[in-house]
Amino acid sequence: xxxxxxxxxxxxxxxxxxxxxxxxxxxxxxxxxxxxxxxxxxxxxxxxxxxxxxxxxxxxxxxxxxxxxxxxxxxxxxxxxxxxxxxxxxxxxxxxxxxxxxxxxxxxxxxxxxxxxxxxxxxxxxxxxxxxxxxxxxxxxxxxxxxxxxxxxxxxx
Length: 157
Fold this sequence. Notes:
This protein has 157 residues and is of the alpha+beta class. It contains 3 helices and 7 strands; from the N terminus they run βββββββααα. The chain has helices at residues 91-106, 111-125, 139-150; strands at 2-4, 9-14, 19-32, 35-40, 43-47, 52-68, 86-89. The longest helix is centred in the middle third of the chain and has 16 residues, at 91-106. It is globular, with a radius of gyration of 15 Å.
């Protein structure tokens, strides 16, 4: 879990490993090439390790759950889904991401539970469906995001 301060701009950089990032609270803009994505609570990003990107965090900052996908972990489950940079906003992936976030937060010392949560998320990424159209978040889901943000959290590794 990482908290980013208000209005911080990160210059173009490349992550070492593929990463799944879930916006838990706040807002950000991520740029790759000439394309920008605006993200808020419930947005989920797929970032392959080779993609150069820039970030600008909103006026209230942002809290992100960032999951580095270890080499080989996704080989049998959703490897194709991790091959290109993209964002999903709301929809089924947001629900699975929230469930994974809660499982990771509650499984502080349980490595198997942590791996299961990550694998569930990777599997959901590889399911058929047009995740790009998952942009409109229902009101009940927004309420869940707000409750998660207000809930006390445990530090995770």
